[in-house]
Amino acid sequence: MGGIELNDRAIGLLNHYDIEVIRTRKGRGAILCDTENGCFIFKEVIGNPEKLKLQDCLLKKVSAYGSVEAEQIVRTKEDVLWVEDGDSRKYFLKTYFDNRECNLYEENECEEAVKTLALLHNVLHLEDAEVAEFQVTPFLIDREYEKHNKELRKVWRYLRKKSQKSLFESALLQEYDYYLEQALEVTEEWRDFAKEDDLNYIKECGSFCHGDYQYHNIIRVGQEFAVINFERCVMDNPVRDLCLFMRKLLEKSEWSIELGDGLLNAYNSVRPLSARSFVELYYRLAYPEKFWKIANFYYNSGKAWIPERNREKLELLSAQEKAKQAFLEKIFRTLS
Fold first, then answer.
1. Are 30 and 95 a contacting pair, CB within 8 Å?
2. 41-99 pLDDT, tens per residue?
3. Residue 135 φ/ψ region, left for φ over 0, alpha for ψ in the -120 to 50 degree band, beta for the rest
4. Do residues 131 and 202 lie in contact, with contact meaning Cβ atoms separated by under 8 Å?
5. β partners of residue 62
6. Cα angle vertex 125, ends 121, 130, to 5°?
7. b/e string for 281-319 if b means 16 or more Cβ within 10 A?
8. Based on CB atoms within 10 Å of each CB, which residue in 88, 213, 298, 324 is the most buried?
């Protein structure tokens, strides 16, 4: 449960808030608090607590527009965003929707979730003065990919030098040339397309992303969806969120062209993608993110025993590659 334990000291921090807690229970790395005014969640602040100010600002904008229901950070009686325990750990309180998550296996629900995302993107933006106030640094995808590529090269060199290889390591090395070449090619093509104008484009849009738009952060509330866990919010092209949500679903559906087309149509029905964002979505989906994750996880884990799950993920990736390329060809590359 992170830094929080269900003891009197941790629960005592709730006295800083103007809520009457009826009971507490364990949540996912947090404490759920039942009150007469609904459910709240008490979590440890991960990273720089100053980011909570940005998060709070964005959530207030979402609330003000009213098109999407989202969590809200609760301020203390002293009107601050977090509290601190005796060990200098910081915690914050949010509203919580104690309902079920989006069902990934219901296509209609997934299309609803994408429409909710589009509505969210319509309001997740800040003015120049606000960006300056929060000292926000825009995310640049080419820098992220260059970092990934360096890590891929490092793992490749390690595997090449290793004299005795496990079955998984041999299989990973066998796939390496294909995916490394793919990663380098996608990165170079994106740079040629963006022409080093990505930073200005993102700044001009003033757009922010949820940062972790996955099914467990999309909660059914009545006939609508509510969105939670904005801790990874970031200034970036909104296709970041769309790409993450689509990739998760497409990997589970063998890169179904019909599903992908339905998700894109659902998003576009609310917030049409610009031509530039459509191209960026292609490159984000085309980058071999899954292979990088497998290789990076392997390299940074203990190698004396390699989990069977690693091999299964690699086999699934290889088995789906043809379907993924067919999807990219049909949905993106055949368009003029």
1. no
2. 999 999 899 999 999 999 999 999 999 999 999 999 999 999 998 888 899 999 999 89
3. left
4. no
5. none
6. 165
7. bbbbbbbbbbbbebbeebbeeeeeebeeebbebbeebee
8. 213
8 A C-beta contact, residue 66 and residue 120: no
- In angstroms, the CA 289 to CA 301 distance is 18
Spell out the residues 6+ positions from residue 293 whose beta carbon is closer than 8 angstroms to its own: none
Prediction pTM value:
0.92
Amino acid at 156: W
| Closest of 248, 332, 242, 232 to residue 290, by C-alpha | 248
The b-or-e profile of 41-50 (16+ CB within 10 A means b, else e) is bbbbbeeeee
Rounding to the nearest 10 degrees, give the CA dihedral for residues 198, 203, 206, 208.
Answer: 50
In angstroms, what CA-CA distances link 181 with 292, 295, 327? Answer: 12, 14, 19
